[in-house]
Amino acid sequence: KYYLLEAEEYWCNDDCEHAKTSYNKAIYYAKEHKFINEEALACELAAYFHLSLGDRNNAVNYFTKAYESYHQWGAFAKTSKLYEFIQAEFGFV
């Protein structure tokens, strides 16, 4: 959770390079420690971060990882909402 909060703080302070690094650390450590819910959230927030930068390719990759992680965790209502957002924003899933 620390790296995710750090990433969000960097993003709020327009420090994009450090934000990218912290999002990736948050995802890596959540996955390593099998915190699937934290991994899903970190992927989703990283996706919104990349989308805000206009980096649609990375955004869709992170959204896909978030979708898969939420589904694996069993958060089906969340996967449904995320599916709708991805469909509307990118036109596919």
Explain this structure:
The structure is a single chain. By secondary structure, the protein is an all-alpha fold. 84% of the residues lie in helices and 0% in strands. The protein is built from 5 helices and no strands. It has helices at residues 2-12, 16-32, 36-52, 56-73, 76-90. The model has no long low-confidence stretch (mean pLDDT 96).
Question: Could you write a compact summary of the structure shown?
Answer:
The chain is mainly α. The chain has helices at residues 2-12, 16-32, 36-52, 56-73, 76-90.
Give the SSE layout:
Elements: H1 2-12, H2 16-32, H3 36-52, H4 56-73, H5 76-90
Gyration radius, in Å: 13 Å
* Count of DSSP H/I helices: 5
Poorly predicted regions are: none
Shape: flat
N- to C-terminal distance: 28 Å
Average the pLDDT over all residues and give the rounded result.
Answer: 96
Q: Describe the sheet with the most strands.
A: none
Residues in helix, %:
over 70%
Binned strand content? under 5%
Tally of extended strands? 0
SSE succession: HHHHH
Which structural category do the helix and sheet elements fall into?
A: mainly alpha
